[in-house]
Specification:
Blueprint: H1 3-39, E1 49-52, H2 56-64, H3 66-69, H4 82-92, E2 103-108, E3 114-120, E4 132-137, H5 147-158, E5 162-167, H6 189-201, E6 206-212, H7 214-225, E7 233-239, H8 245-251, H9 259-275, H10 278-283, H11 291-298, H12 303-309, H13 320-327, E8 340-345, H14 357-365, E9 369-374, H15 395-430
Parallel strand pairs: 4-5, 4-6, 6-7, 7-8, 8-9
Antiparallel strand pairs: 1-9, 2-3, 3-5
Helix pairs in contact: 2-15
């Protein structure tokens, strides 16, 4: 080996540690970049975007609902990721979940089904002194025992609200089906039965209709199906729904925002729920479901396949398109005249951005609708916190109650104004 070669080897040997250090730094930088991108750490926090017409009630809400104009601040390290918010909600529900004490009610339906709901009495007086009941419809396959429902119910009870929570037909593992069907995206029969019971049992109560995800679709469809359904309803609240089942399912076959993965997870959950009632669905003579349908269900890898094989047949829809059209609130929501709050999150991986045009356009055209769009929150997450650990109450829990409190005060003020006007008219006429 020549002296020159010896020098080259010496130089190379001295540079190797620096090269390895550089590679380590590059690897660390790459990992940090991926973490920052995946956790969306550079995304700024901001107040919700609010879309509504300029009306007396919207101006009142802007003044009396601080959460409308205040920044929503999710946990710093992970809360800006819509995926993590959604996954944590799905796996954990909430933290330090309370256990509200309620009474389960059973309601026989005309088709032989048995609807169930849980009734929770208020734990104190409402701030207005009124008797107000929240009639709550949970998300897909959910019921009153889910952690996010229990947390919301406990918070509402403490603010003076009675709560009635629908248990979706077939969702409770310890309640057998008495007819050959389970809940669907937009069947309002069980929700209507619960609302009817509350109206009869508490003739003086006012109602607040609250729906989460699929429950938001059912609530809005129920209110718009028949104007009489809005009697004694102070307002409607919908959280994280997709508004159109047809357009939602079209987006669920896309990989954008890992939506196809979520579709697979939801499909697996629905398969398990349906198959848990296999014997009931097959044993009843009026069933539209046969062995062949359930066998095809085993092979289903998407909600569209389940809907076409099983779900549309519960109500004898001739096609998948007809099922989606008839079950979606988008065809009914414009008939709702009571105050209506629609809430979505921009980073919700289950609700495609194109679907948000529906509530946006609705709020721009209808004076009773307010659309609130947060930057973060995921699907039914909306966790709040400082760095790592979320608070027991979410932004969603607090905002629904704050909005409802404001509506109650608004209606009380309007009633007082009408009473004063009536008295003034009587005095003028008598004079």
């Amino acid at each position: 080996m020549t002296a020159l070669e010896d020098g080259d080897m010496h130089t190379l040997g001295s540079e190797l540690p620096a090269m390895f250090d550089g590679m380590k730094l590059a690897a660390v930088a790459t990992v940090l970049y991926i973490v920052v991108r995946c956790l969306n750490l550079k995304s700024p926090t901001s107040p919700p975007e609010i879309i509504n017409q300029d009306t007396a009630i919207s101006r009142y809400l802007h003044k009396t609902c601080p959460l409308l104009t205040k920044e929503y601040i999710p946990p710093l390290l992970w809360g800006k990721s819509g995926h993590l918010q959604t996954v944590l909600y799905g796996k954990m529900g909430r933290v330090n979940t309370p256990s509200p004490c309620g009474v389960r009610k059973f309601l026989p339906m005309q088709d032989g089904a048995t609807a169930t709901f849980d009734l929770f009495e208020a734990l104190g007086d409402h701030s207005t002194g009124d008797d107000v009941t929240m009639v709550i419809c949970p998300g897909i396959g959910n019921h009153s025992e889910k952690n996010y429902i229990r947390t919301f119910v406990d918070h509402s009870q403490r603010q003076g609200y009675r709560c009635a929570v629908l248990n979706h037909l077939g969702a409770l593992p310890n309640v057998e089906l008495t007819s050959p069907r389970i809940f669907t995206y937009g069947c309002t029969w069980e929700y209507a039965a619960m609302v009817g019971y509350i109206k009869r049992a508490y003739p003086q109560t006012l109602l607040v209709a609250v729906g989460f995800s699929l429950g938001g679709n059912i609530v809005c469809k129920f209110l718009g199906e028949n104007h009489a359904n809005q009697d004694r309803v102070l307002c409607g609240v919908s959280i994280c729904q997709g508004y159109s089942a047809l357009r939602t399912q079209e987006t669920f076959v896309q990989w954008d925002q890992c939506r196809k993965f979520y579709n697979f997870v939801l499909t697996d959950n629905m398969k398990k729920l349906i198959l848990s009632h296999r014997s009931s669905l097959l044993s009843m003579s009026s069933s539209n479901i046969g062995d062949a349908d359930l066998n095809r269900l085993y092979a289903a890898t998407s909600l569209i396949q389940i809907d076409d094989t099983i779900m549309r047949k519960f109500h004898s829809h001739s096609s998948l398109k007809e099922y989606y059209e008839k079950e979606s609130c988008v065809h009914y929501i414009h008939k709702v005249t009571v105050p209506l709050l629609l809430v979505n999150s921009s980073d919700d991986p289950l609700v495609h951005q194109s679907l948000l045009d529906i509530p946006r356009n609705l709020a721009e055209k209808m004076p009773n609708v307010i659309f609130v769009l947060t930057q973060h929150g995921g699907h039914l997450g909306f966790f709040e916190g400082a760095m790592l650990f979320p608070q027991p109450l979410t932004w969603m829990d607090k905002f629904i109650v704050e909005y409802t409190d404001a509506i109650c005060r608004w209606e009380q003020d309007q009633l007082a104004c009408r009473r004063d006007t009536h008295q003034s008219t009587k005095v003028t006429l008598s004079g």
